[in-house]
Automatic annotation (TrEMBL):
Species this chain originates from: Paenisporosarcina antarctica
Protein name: Metal-sulfur cluster assembly factor
UniProt-listed InterPro entries: Fe-S_Maturation_MIP18, FSCA_dom_sf, MIP18-like
Domain MIP18 family-like residues, every copy: 10-78
Tree of life domain: Bacteria
Pfam family, one: FeS_assembly_P
């Protein structure tokens, strides 16, 4: 997968807003990896802010919807992983400023 496609996928994922925090999942540092096979099978490896996140299923649905907007993407698999664990250190400078995290 080339860098342009990776950028397109990450750009699409920036439209997915965590309902509890109001910041997109990319700036929150929840997306660990994206991949796309030649036949259009997308895999997103990501985590959630907490193990029992009630918004998990909704976020997964939003991830799929955002990637289906890309013409190259035919199918999406979202892998939720807990290692490495998410921490505030994963957040972008923008997300930290928006949430007042130091």
């Amino acid at each position: 997968m080339d860098q342009d496609m990776r950028d397109s996928m990450m750009g699409a994922l920036e439209t997915v807003i965590d309902p509890e925090l109001g910041i997109d999942i990319v700036n929150l540092g929840l997306v660990y990896d994206v991949d796309l096979t030649e036949d259009g099978f997308a895999v997103v490896t990501m985590t959630l802010t907490s193990l029992g996140c009630p918004m998990g299923p909704m976020i997964v649905d939003m991830v799929k919807t955002s990637l289906y907007d890309l013409p190259e993407v035919k199918e999406v698999d979202v892998k939720i992983v807990w290692t490495p664990a998410w921490s505030k250190d994963n957040m972008s400078r923008y997300a930290k400023m928006a949430l007042g995290v130091r």
